[in-house]
Amino acid sequence: QVQLVESGGGLVQAGGSLRLSCAASGRTFSSYAMGWFRQAPGKEREFVAAISWSGGSTYYADSVKGRFTISRDNAKNTVYLQMNSLKPEDTAVYYCAADFFPSSSLGVGVIFAYEYDYWGQGTQVTVSS
Can you tell me whether residue 17 is helix, strand or coil? Predict the structure, then answer.
């Protein structure tokens, strides 16, 4: 079992920045690839970014590429999402998720929510125009 707790959400003006954190506890964190997803009101949950267990491989949705950066600190059992140049359309609840995948690369299914084994409760990000 892995427990995930997100933090760092809030209200920010367009063009601003936020850094989300996801603290993990339970089973060996470094055996898991980690992902960030988001869900806006009335929309389906969508993939944002993923990172391999080693941190050596990352993948981003086109909508956030160049603005968001995912990283992890396995010593602290924490994954981060640095969000810069935020836009109103980035407003959503952001979720982190863990996928048991002890490989240096990312699996082809990292963009799909069903691939992940554990989820956090989410943190709200609101970007005002």
Answer: coil
CB-facing half-sphere around the CA of 110: CA atoms within 13 A: 25
**pLDDT tens track for 73-88:** 999 999 999 999 999 9
Answer for the pair 12, 126: CB distance below 8 angstroms, yes or no: yes
- The answer to whether 6 touches 94, Cβ cutoff 8 Å, is yes
The CA distance from 11 to 4, in Å, is 22
Task: Strands of 1-122 (E only): list them.
Answer: 2-7, 10-13, 18-26, 32-39, 46-51, 58-60, 68-73, 78-83, 92-100, 118-119
CA distances from 76 to 22, 27, 54, 64 (A): 10, 13, 13, 25
